[in-house]
Design goal:
Layout: H1 3-18, E1 32-43, E2 48-54, E3 57-68, E4 75-77, E5 89-101, E6 109-123, H2 136-142, E7 145-156, H3 160-168, E8 178-181, E9 188-192, E10 198-208, E11 226-236, E12 246-254, E13 266-273, H4 275-281, E14 287-297
Antiparallel strand pairs: 1-3, 1-5, 2-3, 3-4, 5-6, 7-14, 8-9, 9-10, 10-11, 11-12, 12-13, 13-14
Length: 301
């Protein structure tokens, strides 16, 4: 299985969460212009993850970060027509904002933005940017996350020390934080606290792996479902893309069919082999295998 197929499975796993549907066909008849304005914007040197709405549906996308004149806050803007944007540059531009009304459209009222003039283009890293423009409700209702309630398996002569270590070390439950994964964008992660403040963020790197590359210890804690594919998740930051802060092997599995589970529904299980770590930490315990397993959950489960 190649990486494209792996990504396809991940997309199918969470497609229902995104809730993507098509709008009705756009027609000119009956359309009215309700407002027209021209103003200047500052456009940041990078796009940020955000949520765009169309026909009542919400989807993840990279959006512009902009500031209006005399504003100190960055805001999200989905698109700017005829704007040949180049990342790494901060812009000052003049745009038009035309608002329309057409009750035959999926969204009857909307605004379209068009570039009128580029006033300046400066190589710069924009300052004071937020980590994203994703509202709390989208994380809570639409984004899958790693369930911190992990399972484990231990094969050792003295299991008590290892079991106590696993169950009391808050690091194994991410310190009470939650890793959210952005699907179907599928290449961003955010670590949020209980107040939905961003504690960490970065890129999720995914690659395919053969089953033979996995350690035999995983057989102590099998997924118990039909395996469709396997691979690896690397959680990296933008500043250190070659140094994962978290790394897991994954199994993509099909759930057993039932009246309440659609046929396309899959589970993603994340595995880590801790055998060598505990062999060094507790040499007298004669550790033969230690494995932990997490499940990727949809936020609405």
């Amino acid at each position: 299985m190649n990486t494209k197929v792996l990504f396809g499975m991940l997309f199918v796993a969470f497609l229902a969460v995104a809730g993507l549907t098509a709008c009705s066909d756009e027609t000119e008849e009956g359309r009215k212009i309700t407002d027209y304005r021209e103003y200047m914007l500052m456009v940041a040197s990078e796009k940020l993850p955000g949520v765009v709405t169309s026909c009542g549906n919400h989807a993840l996308a990279d959006v512009f970060a902009v500031k209006k004149e005399r504003s100190t806050e960055w805001e999200a803007l989905e698109s700017i027509g005829n704007f040949d944007y180049e990342e790494g540059y901060e812009y000052r531009i003049r745009i038009s904002a035309t608002s329309y009304l057409d009750y035959r459209m999926g969204d009857p009222a909307w605004t379209e933005y068009e570039l009128l003039e580029v006033l300046s283009k400066e190589p710069k890293n924009s300052e004071g940017l937020p980590p994203h423009f994703i509202p709390d409700w989208y994380f809570e209702k639409r984004c899958p996350y790693i369930d911190p309630a992990f399972a484990y398996a231990i094969d050792a002569d003295r299991k008590e020390d290892i079991e106590n270590d696993l169950t009391t070390d808050v690091a194994y439950k991410f310190g009470g934080l939650r890793y959210f994964i952005l699907f179907p964008v599928a290449d961003h992660w955010f670590l949020l606290d209980d107040d939905m403040n961003t504690v960490g963020q970065g890129i999720l790197l995914m690659r395919n792996k053969e089953a033979a590359e996995f350690p035999e210890t995983y057989k102590l804690l099998p997924p118990g479902q039909q395996v469709l594919g396997q691979g690896e998740f690397d959680f990296v930051t933008h500043d250190a893309p070659d140094d994962p802060i978290q790394q897991y092997d994954i199994f993509i599995c099909r759930q057993a069919l039932s009246k309440s589970i659609p046929p396309h529904h899959v589970d993603i299980w994340l595995y880590k082999d801790l055998t060598a770590y505990y062999q060094n930490k507790y040499p007298e315990a004669r550790v033969r295998a230690v494995v932990i397993r997490y499940r990727m959950k949809n936020s609405d489960e």
